[in-house]
Specification:
It comes from Caulobacter segnis. InterPro entries: TAT_signal, Thioredoxin-like_fold, Thioredoxin-like_sf, Thioredoxin_domain. Keywords: Signal. This protein is of the alpha+beta class. The protein has one domain: 3-Layer(aba) Sandwich (Glutaredoxin), CATH 3.40.30. About 45% of the residues lie in helices and about 10% in strands. It is built from 8 helices and 5 strands; from the N terminus they run E-E-H-H-E-H-H-H-H-H-E-E-H. Strands 1-3-2-4-5 form a 5-stranded mixed sheet. Helix 3 runs antiparallel to helix 4, helix 3 packs parallel to helix 5 and helix 4 packs antiparallel against helix 5. The longest helix has 18 residues. The radius of gyration is 17 Å and the shape is globular. The chain starts with about 35 loop residues before the first strand and ends with a helix.
Length: about 210
């Protein structure tokens, strides 16, 4: 699988593996905000769910498309949980970075665009046309080919995605995706809807 070299946007990024389990990182309080994180839900929600995921990670795509919609409907949209998303890069890093840059390029539709990337991830991988797959998503959201190419080659956008990745890797000690924290406590093992619902209930009680 290759991206067109016109979009060599993640060159030099450190390789990072992808796995189900979250690293055993000690956290004692809800995580403070970091630059570039994307948020859904009420700022006064009693429970904070922080997720680190990569646009190129199949496990992340499964969680995002199968579990997150249930979490949003039952907890985020009802004001019980605030969802905080932080970008991470896993191989192919070019695809992950491009997916995030694309999502940020469409005003007000970050989560919608990223959901489309996750929904089509497997199909795009099978086609082995990563650039074209993301370009088609860009067209769906109103970008011309020229605008898509400009987004993929925007040095400020590239710096932003690199900065967010290296902060997560080096300062927040994130090692694999997806990784979750509920009110600052790492969630390991089962991260399905029922398991998260139980974690939210415990966190809400303090």
């Amino acid at each position: 699988m290759t991206l067109d070299r016109r979009a060599l946007i993640a060159a030099g990024l450190a390789a990072s593996g992808s796995a189900w389990a979250a690293p055993a990182v000690a956290r004692a309080a809800p995580l403070p905000p970091v630059p570039g994180e994307m948020v859904l839900g009420s700022p006064t929600a009693p429970v904070q769910l922080v997720a680190y995921a990569s646009a190129s990670c199949p496990h992340c795509a499964h969680w995002w498309t199968e579990v997150l919609p249930q979490v949003r409907k039952s907890f985020v949209d009802t004001g019980k949980v605030r969802f905080v998303f932080r970008e991470f890069l896993t191989p192919p890093t070019e695809f992950a970075a491009a997916g995030f840059i694309l999502a940020r390029r469409i005003p007000g539709k970050y989560f919608e665009v990223l959901s489309t990337v996750f929904q089509r991830q497997e199909e795009i991988y099978r086609s082995e046309k990563l650039w074209e797959g993301l370009q088609a998503i860009g067209k769906q959201y109103g970008l011309t080919d020229a605008q898509f190419a400009a987004a993929m080659n925007d040095p400020a956008a590239l710096k932003g995605v690199n900065d967010r990745f290296f902060r997560a890797l080096n300062q927040e000690n994130i090692e694999v995706t997806p990784t979750f924290f509920v009110n600052g406590a790492p969630i390991e093992g089962d991260t399905g809807f029922d398991a998260l619902a139980k974690a939210f209930a415990v966190a809400a009680k303090g």
